[in-house]
Structures are given as structure tokens and as C-alpha cells.
Amino acid sequence: MPTHSNIIQRLEQTCNQSDSMLHKKVLEQLKAQQYQAVFSQQFIQQCQTETGLSVVQIALEMLPLAACYSLAPVSNFYVGAIAIGKSGSFYFGANQEFAHDAMAQTIHAEQSAIAHALMAKESEITDMIVNYTPCGHCRQFMNELNSAKHLNIHLPHSQNNLLHSYLPDAFGPKDLNIKSVLFDPQPHNYFAEGDDVVQAAVKIANHAYAPYSQAISGVALLLDSGQVICGQYAENAAFNPSMLPLQIALNYRRLLGLSDIKVTRVVLAEKQAILSHRKITESLAQHCLGLPIEYIIL
Q: Is-contact 101 130, C-beta < 8 A?
């Protein structure tokens, strides 16, 4: 599997092949923050001052760098996305494919950027910038957001298009009488006994978005460095675009610049419901990390 060193190599190659001063500034910032692929509003404002570009123009120019975080052993098709939060922060995302597991485990670039923002505790996504037209899967995933009605999509060839111009007569949470949607607070109060890693899995599960199945779940990954990376479940009205907690945790680890640090434990905390993520999580953990999972019932 391509590692963190591959990401760095791609970033440097992209900058070396480009005349963009913005690319070089962004790469220096990534180095300074250990390749964590998020940029504050303050940094973006500095970029605006130095380049004279708008926020959207800056994001469009940064897309080739976001695509460097892609993991595409099946397609060799590298997609980058940037989610702009209400805070003004930029969150990189990139498609991720997992060799030797089902294609359904794939994380799309837009999902990656949104999940990145979700785990960073962003409150709302205002804009999505992507280097290829969003597929139907991603359009449906974005329709679950609390900002879906006014979410702007920006492509290299077409900017300032509302999500619903790509998804007319959309089916979504409102059709199933769901009022509190993705990125709205989802307070649950489950608990379980266990060490700090177990407690981290339980804590993130208590933020899971699962209004359709009630299959509340969260994952905690213990890294060899002692850090704990978490991921929550993010469900979708159309079911299939839902993101599993391990997918979100692996995505977050990659975008935090930690993909070279070995994972030593995988803990899945899950409420018993009409469906379970246990088997599919076991499969991805085995193929991607070579580890069994520890399963905690909430």
C-alpha cells in the first residue's frame, strides 16, 4: 500500500512540475504542519493577499495537491477534493481504494473531504471543490449535509453551482422525516467499560449519525506512537453511500499525515441494531492493517 512517503513524493513532484507560487507556499505549509492536510482561514487569507485570487480560485489551484493524498491501486485515477467549512478552513480529501477488499469499501474524494471536516469538528460545509464532476454516489452523500440546500459545487470548468442543480428532485433525509442531519449535533449517551482506547471508540460512537438503522458505532485506532485516531459512522438516506467508522478513521489518519505510523489496535464500539458493521470492519481491518478487531457492544 502506498505510504506517507509516496504522498510526499507526489507533492514534491507536483510542485516541481508547476510554475505556481501558490503550490510552493502550500507545500511549505504542509511541511510545517507535518503534512496535516487542513488549512486555516488565516492561511487562506494570506494566500489571497499574496496572489490576488478569490477563495474559490485558490481552492481550484490547490486541487492537484489534494489529489496527491489519493490511494488508487485499482483505478490509478487520482481525484482531489477540498471542502470549505463555515469556519473558513480548507479540508483536503482524496479517493481511496483498498486492494484485496470489495469495491464498495472505496472512499470517494468528496466523501473523504467531508469526513475529514466532520472529524475536525467543523459545523457546516459551505463549498465543495473537486477536479472531476461528482458522481451520483457523491451527490447523494452530499445531500445528507445540513448545508445541502445551499452547498456550492466548484469544478475547474464550472463554478458556483448549487448541489441540487446536479441532483434535481432529490431524495434525502426529509423524505424519511429526518430533521437532524449530518453535521448537526448527534448526542448519544452510550457507555462501556474498558481502557482509554475503548473509551475513545465509545466517545466517537456517541457522535455517530445513524437515523435510519440506529446502528450507532465508532472506531478507535491505536497507533504505535501512542496516538488514537477515531472515526464515527455516517449514514445516508440512500443507504449505500453511508461511510463506515473504520473508513472514516483510516481516511482521517491519512489526511493527518500519519499513514506511515503502524496501527496496533482496532476497536469497534457498536450498539446492537437491525444491522451490524462488525463483519465488514473485520474484513477491512484484516486486508488494510493485518489486524483483528476488538468488538465492544454498547
A: no
